[in-house]
Design goal:
The protein is α+β, with helices and mostly antiparallel strands. Helices cover 45% and strands 19% of the residues. Helix 2 packs parallel to helix 4. It is elongated.
């Protein structure tokens, strides 16, 4: 019901503009007051209409807010907030950082701090040391395919050989990761 009412409010935006030409989409921001039946007062609703060439209907999104910023700023703010929430979700699932099983508060603080450090190290690895074909991997994929990999250390006369299964990542990818990490070393002074 609410969705239909909001779409009816945004309908004039669709009819007022021409179908977009190829290239950049038509993006329109609009705000209005709306009061749902259970709300005690009207609230500000910001609508973003985005119409891409070749699409029959525009994409319409709504944000209910009490902020006074311009409509474009509201959309930008909430998109950034959504990105932050995705990072939190990634940390929850990749590192299981919600598992604070210690009975003392201080121990849980330390444990959460270690999870945050592991998350930041994973992002550091992902952004600075991964080959192009691995840059979009999630932290879960990195953990499973690069970090938590079974390997065997074989000692020869004058060297150590680290043998890994190539099921996780191929030798070329691992060599590229190690090369990029070496490049991050500070220059000797």
């Amino acid at each position: 019901m609410l969705y239909q009412v909001l779409h009816k409010e945004a309908e004039p935006l669709v009819t007022d503009h021409e179908i977009p030409a190829p290239g950049r989409p038509v993006v329109i921001y609009h705000d209005f007051q709306y009061q749902a039946g259970t709300w005690n007062r009207p609230r500000r609703v910001v609508a973003k209409l985005e119409w891409h060439a070749g699409e029959l209907f525009p994409r319409v999104g709504f944000i209910v807010t009490n902020r006074n910023d311009p409509a474009r700023g509201i959309v930008h703010f909430y998109n950034g907030r959504g990105t932050c929430e995705q990072w939190i979700k990634e940390g929850k699932y990749a590192l299981d950082w919600m598992r604070l099983s210690c009975h003392e508060f201080k121990a849980n603080v330390v444990r959460l701090g270690l999870f945050a450090l592991a998350y930041n190290l994973g992002n550091f690895l992902r952004r600075l040391a991964l080959p192009k074909q691995m840059e979009t991997w999630s932290l879960t994929s990195l953990k499973e395919k690069v970090i938590k990999v079974g390997a065997r250390l074989v000692m020869h006369a004058r060297r150590l050989v680290f043998q890994m299964a190539e099921v996780s990542i191929i030798r070329v990818m691992l060599a590229e990761i190690l090369r990029k990490i070496r490049q991050l070393e500070p220059a000797p002074s």
